[in-house]
């Protein structure tokens, strides 16, 4: 795409080393949530702004409980171009929007706000980000038999993604059967077919004897509890040809190690974080980020994490 940008300029802290300064034309984007101190989103968006030559700055905003609606109204009044939304506000923020994208409405969660006439429109770029991350690694969903671990908000969204991308079957394993059943009923009703089969996590041995794509959608294994894993049994991992953990810190989770030890391929959620940010950036700025640019930002994210 020839739009006058350069991707070879030197960067420091996400800013161009060309003397560019913040001025009266600088647009502001940011993240609202609680907590926000450890977010990597500024790395993504400020790096993209530098590469694209956009006069834009991205910062995190800590929003205390009870202040969400005021924060959204205030951001709009201050001419903020767009916002990302993280925990615990992805569902609650919907009440403060003038419009919600169909996919986000079905999932019941919004992570990106785009400025429109009279307020913000909400999108969910998490799942499209996950899909683009999987595609970048050569992972397919269409026609696949999938094991999905967890039935919380993230896993529920993944179940919708699997339905949308025409997965063959999704075996949804959760500690509480009733929660898995609710997600299955919602997704199956949304797509008019039996996409999701609910199961108790303890019944994993009852999975069919075949190879699966497994998606780890719980917070188990998140730093600092890096040695935790939802299922310990090596026999379970021998059924997995590819494992995708939504967690990106640590860079290699125990779930990933167990998949690899059993002979499968394994990936973490850092590229999901990358692509959900890229899609938000594209929505705010009406641009298309190339894969070469995405790779440069991904390398920057790994350096920030101390990963070579």
* Number of helical regions: 10
Q: How widely separated are the two ends?
A: 29 Å
**Order of strands, widest sheet:** 4-3-5-7-8-6
Binned, the helix content reads 25-40%
Output mean pLDDT: 93
- How much of the polypeptide forms β-strand, as a percent range? 15-25%
Largest sheet: 6 strands, mixed
What is the total tally of β strands? Answer: 14
Broad shape: globular
SSE pattern: EEEHEHEEHEEHEHEHEEHEHEHH
- Low confidence ranges: 1-19
Description:
The chain has ten helices and 14 strands. It has helices at residues 41-52, 68-77, 102-107, 125-136, 153-164, 177-191, 234-237, 254-261, 270-285, 291-304; strands at residues 11-12, 15-16, 27-33, 56-62, 82-85, 99-100, 112-116, 119-123, 145-149, 169-174, 196-200, 212-216, 240-245, 265-267. Strands 4-3-5-7-8-6 form a six-stranded mixed sheet, with helices on both faces. The chain has a six-stranded parallel sheet with strand order 11-10-9-12-13-14, sandwiched between helices. A two-stranded antiparallel sheet has the order 1-2. The radius of gyration is 20 Å and the shape is globular. 44% of the residues are buried. Mean pLDDT is 93; it is low at 1-19.
Quick structural gist:
This protein has 308 residues and is of the alpha/beta class. It has helices at 41-52, 68-77, 102-107, 125-136, 153-164, 177-191, 234-237, 254-261, 270-285, 291-304; strands spanning 11-12, 15-16, 27-33, 56-62, 82-85, 99-100, 112-116, 119-123, 145-149, 169-174, 196-200, 212-216, 240-245, 265-267.
